[in-house]
Amino acid sequence: MRIREAVYEDAVGLRSLLLDIGWFSNSNIGGDEFPEKLKKMLAWNIQEPDHVLLVAEEDGDIVGYVGLHFIPYLFMGHPEGYISELFVKSSARGKGIGSKLLTEAVKRGRARGCSRMQLVNMKNRDSYKRGFYTKMGWRERENAADFVYDPTEG
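^ thats the sequence. predicted structure below, dont judge the formating
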């Protein structure tokens, strides 16, 4: 298994992984337009190097990925690394792939000079219930609230 930056040719494997998870329908992830959406996102990653999409590949199959972003914070004096997505194909779970993806994201955060790494995990997800992030050395902030706003509704 190896971890590398995503390329356009990974679109079919990434789409398959997202469908395998079962949270997304074909229409949620763009159907036949998914490869084109991935191409645009990867072009953005090249233009804006504060974003990276890493894939875990095993025998030519995409078995996981992590989205990582570097956000500047003036009050910290350094960027914060933010993990927006970390998914592993259901058939590949329990093999340490998620741990390796998370470790690589942290390694890249250190290399970028991040003073902190952050992610959001939904409490109803298996990874939260299993304590995956806690086991990896992450701690849950008890005094923080996670808010979202849909700009298309306001």
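The mean pLDDT is 88.
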